[in-house]
Design a protein that fits this description.
The chain has helices at about 1-5, 110-120, 125-140, 205-210, 225-230, 240-250, 260-265, 355-365, 370-395, 400-405, 405-420, and strands at about 10-15, 25-35, 40-45, 45-50, 55, 60-65, 65-70, 70-75, 85, 90-100, 155-160, 165-175, 175-180, 185-190, 200, 280-290, 300, 315. It is α+β, with helices and mostly antiparallel strands.
Length: about 425
């Protein structure tokens, strides 16, 4: 199976006080996907839906809810769901591919990425988002091709869900799941199950099922990762995997983790967290969630591959946000090859304007030393300026909503100017 030959995934991180600086929660994620896949940054306002409305996800149609929250998403442009995103209530979610003892079936259901978006659209706290995801998992299951290709690439999912107060790690194997509450310090997830014996919520049949499969004897202490995967949990944080490297980087900065430190971690190439090659980091996100409810949450997105040469651009939820046109991919509607059976017979050009300009700029950065260095310096300065502006909003508690509506779009314009 393709997935077993190439277990690839992303990395998601969270730091809570006292590990994060100030009274803030800092969330970060790199989305590692096929190198030629376009990731777009899109915003959907809050909406009301008629009773009995249907909702078309990537592969299946499910029931819509009465009200959905405003969301900002970073997503592979071919699908309905998202790799990562945030909602107007300060809930952030990122997901990872995980494999274990339970075979991944081929039938189409909800993708892990659909569950990310559904959790964000339907919940105003991290724990409620967890409940939304596990309820949908129970009802519709998870499955389907996770890649825009006729080659099957399937996996189960783990999720890191955060809000202003706490974070939850949710890990799944088929319809079975375990969740761990994180109330302080640091936590990261990568492409392996990582919940061991600290289980705060679980599927009611989780242990019985493991017993029936002969994975657990019902006597020794129940360890989710050890039982449902092949991971030696005692060695997890000491081996040379990305999960371990991420854990070390978070711990190295414990007590002083800011949005900038989180960006630095996501840019780290040596650890493999900033991935290169056939699978690479195609989009990145960092969010700052102040614990004081009167301060806005700030979400930074790149919308372009390789965070080491991308700009983290800020987004704040305010009414009437300007449409994010230059990071939105073309829409092919019902003619999209993803919607037609058999699927994925052709691959349209999904590049958005920022992606195209960034692609040309990346060539300059790689091949023209002088000009490339100058361009890199300019985008780093632009990002630094935006981080400082956001910091002053958080320090002074004053947000000009008339400027915030254009915040992300304006930064995209400034980035495009550097590239042209």
């Amino acid at each position: 199976m393709f997935a077993e030959a190439l277990p690839r995934s992303c990395d998601t991180f969270v730091a809570l006080p006292p590990a994060a600086a100030g009274a803030r929660v800092v969330f970060g994620k790199n989305s590692d996907r096929p190198a030629d896949e376009v990731q777009e940054v899109v915003h959907f306002p809050a909406a009301a839906h008629p009773p009995g409305a249907a909702l078309e996800c990537t592969y299946i149609t499910i029931e819509q809810v009465e009200k959905t929250c405003a969301v900002v998403l970073s997503r592979p442009a071919w699908l309905w769901g998202a790799e990562m995103g945030a909602n107007e209530h300060g809930v952030c979610i990122g997901n990872e591919a995980v494999w274990g003892r339970e075979e991944v079936g081929d039938e189409e259901a909800l993708l892990g990425m659909d569950l990310v978006r559904l959790g964000l659209e339907r919940a105003d706290t991290a724990e409620k988002a967890l409940s939304v995801i596990v309820d949908l998992l129970e009802k519709y299951g998870q499955g389907g091709n996770c890649m825009e290709s006729h080659m099957a690439f399937t996996y189960y999912n783990s999720f890191l869900i955060a809000d202003r107060k706490e974070a939850w790690v949710l890990e799944t194997s088929g319809k079975y799941w375990a969740a761990e509450k994180v109330e302080g310090g640091v936590r990261n997830i990568s492409n392996q199950l990582s919940i061991t014996t600290k289980i705060d919520r679980e599927h009611p049949g989780l242990r019985e099922y493991a017993k029936s499969k002969g994975w657990w004897d019902g006597v020794k202490e129940f360890d989710f990762a050890a039982t449902y995967s092949y991971v030696n949990t005692a060695r997890m944080t000491t081996s040379r995997g990305r999960y371990c490297e991420g854990y070390k980087l978070l711990n190295k900065h414990k007590g002083s983790i800011t949005s900038e430190i989180m960006m630095e971690i996501l840019r780290d190439k040596e650890s493999g967290i900033n991935m290169e090659g056939g699978f690479m980091t195609t989009g990145s996100m960092v969010s700052v969630l102040p614990q004081q409810p009167n301060l806005p949450c700030i979400h930074f997105f790149t919308g372009t591959p390789d965070p080491a040469r991308s700009v983290f651009k800020p987004f704040i939820f305010v009414p009437n946000v300007t449409q994010l046109l230059k990071t939105s991919s073309p829409n092919f509607g019902q003619d999209d090859p993803v919607k037609k059976q058999p699927r994925f017979q052709t691959k349209p050009d999904r590049r958005h304007e920022l992606y195209k300009k960034h692609e040309s700029a990346a060539v300059v950065m790689e091949t023209m030393e002088g000009k490339g260095k100058e361009m890199l310096k300019d985008i780093q300065e632009l990002e630094k300026q935006k981080i400082n502006e956001m910091e002053s909003i958080l320090q002074n508690g004053c947000l000009d909503t008339s400027q915030a509506v254009n915040l992300f779009s304006q930064c995209v314009e400034e980035e495009l100017k550097i590239y042209s």
